[in-house]
Amino acid sequence: MARYLITGIAGFIGSSLAHELLRQGHDVTGVDNLSGGDIRNLDGIIREIDLHIMDVNETDRLRKCCIGADFLLHQAALASVQRSIDDPQLTHASNVNGTLSVLIAARDARVSRVVYAASSSAYGNKSQQAKCEDMLPDPLSPYAAQKLSGEHLVRSFSRVYGMEGVCLRYFNVFGPRQGADSPYSGAIAKFISMMLKGETPLIFGDGSQSRDFTYIDNVVSANLLACGAPACDVSGQVFNVGGGRSYTLNQTYDLLARHLCFPHGPRYTAPRVGDIQHSEADLTRSMQMLSYVPLASFADGIARTVQWFLTNELLAVS
Known about the structure:
Blueprint: E1 3-7, H1 12-23, E2 27-32, E3 50-53, H2 59-66, E4 71-74, H3 81-86, H4 88-108, E5 113-119, E6 130-131, H5 142-161, E7 164-170, E8 173-174, H6 187-196, E9 202-204, E10 210-211, E11 214-215, H7 216-228, H8 231-234, E12 237-241, E13 247-248, H9 249-260, E14 267-269, E15 280-281, H10 284-290, H11 298-317
Parallel strand pairs: 1-2, 1-4, 2-3, 4-5, 5-7, 6-15, 7-12, 8-11, 9-14
Antiparallel strand pairs: 10-13
Organism: Terriglobus roseus (strain DSM 18391 / NRRL B-41598 / KBS 63)
Domain NAD-dependent epimerase/dehydratase: 5-242
InterPro entries: Epimerase_deHydtase (IPR001509), Lipid_A_modif_metabolic_enz (IPR050177), NAD(P)-bd_dom_sf (IPR036291)
């Protein structure tokens, strides 16, 4: 049994990690300021967690939470390109200052390893479809630049202080517990939620833009693999976490519409500033160094996600 500290534990990814770690018998401490997370994501496990309602920028309090932790999974962030464009100062405080605070607290408490939730948005609009980790980053938005800054902080702490740190570049994660009620929600969650309400979803652009939509179980698996891999292989390194294949928004919309028997095509509007055109993960390094293999395909993930939303919609009505 190991002790894990999860920042952003009430969020979509943080809560999914907590559920799986507790299932495996580990000890879990969680930190969340509930600005973006939902405490309901911890239903059924909240009494098993040492939960602290606080901001990651509260370094002194966070340091105390870190004491005795073997691994720190840093998921806390204001994760939205558009939100970073709307309010770059607020998102910088969370995504950059917050990451620095986490690393200082972990260093002082002698946490064995930090696994950082980085973002594939760091790649920008590279002409090559499959993005590999040794490409020169080219962030297009404040959010992408902020998450890339976090990577550099993790790597610098690894080099200067000898604290083990691993960066996982997530590609468009989706699945159960993902929020759908915000302007900044992920496309799949938002599409499903609107279709269930009988509303026609909106696509920014012509729908030809593609994403490596990655089911949540794959991301949870990658985090645990990053905790267990030899430090000589992974500390200070960056790894892609995706499905290894991309799908256009039009393809994704059509698949969801078939699952939900939704009869209408999407509405289209102008593309958003800061959005990339194509995103797909080259998984070669992750497979070699982390032994990462996607556990769920895009189609399986969509089916599971739709079923979760259908079940929870029925529970909400009843």
